[in-house]
Write the structure tokens for this entry.
Amino acid sequence: MDMSYTFSQLLDIIKVLRSDNGCPWDREQTHDSIKNDTLEEVYELIDAINNKDDENIIEELGDLLLHVVFHSQIGADEGRFTNEDVLESIITKMIRRHPHVFATEVANNSDEVLKQWDEIKKVEKNHKTHTQVLRSVPKAMPALMRASKVGKKASKVGFDFENKKQLIDKLQEELDETKKALKTGDLVHLQEEIGDLLFQIVNISRFFEINPENALTNATEKFINRFEGIEKLTLVDGLNLSDLTLEQMDGYWNIVKQHNV
């Protein structure tokens, strides 16, 4: 079997699957019906990258490429756009946003490249105000990622914390307001204050160039590992975790924590 496949063969396969003589499921799909699957493929690719699993990276890149082609074919079937439109869009964008490579502009380092990129993007999107730049950050992004990106864009015009003390003072302010909301029992107000508290935590992460998504992911994994630890200890003691009091579980938790799990 010839394994020297080409990109055009992938395009042809999707066209066949979407044709009248193709697959009923593939024919029924729309942008909306597969958008969550597309997002899932991105997360699976990130997981493979984090695990440094080259074989899985190859597979997940293929799955993601499939979704790009699938969405493009849906656009073509609906008479809205084609695969060629998608390719032309990204190629012209890359050339346009790298004038230091494909034209006569000069960028001597990554910082200059990023500054130039932002200016070109601002012109492309016809952003006249900095608020428009902030609003352009997609709402569909994970909330922590979006908050970090909005904060970073705001910082580019000088709207940011200057030092660690300001960060801590603002964190304490938001924490105090959250405590007050807890006492009132007003859930609408509490949600607002928790949001403000989370946003400030993201600001701290951004200030120290810590990825908040990674930080929370690591904290979640640590919680799972410690929970596994207390469950194992209870089994050794011949106990059922669900029968323990919170005080007893805290005791086991502290034992596990002392072992740096």
Observations:
- The radius of gyration is 25 Å.
- The chain has a mean pLDDT of 95.
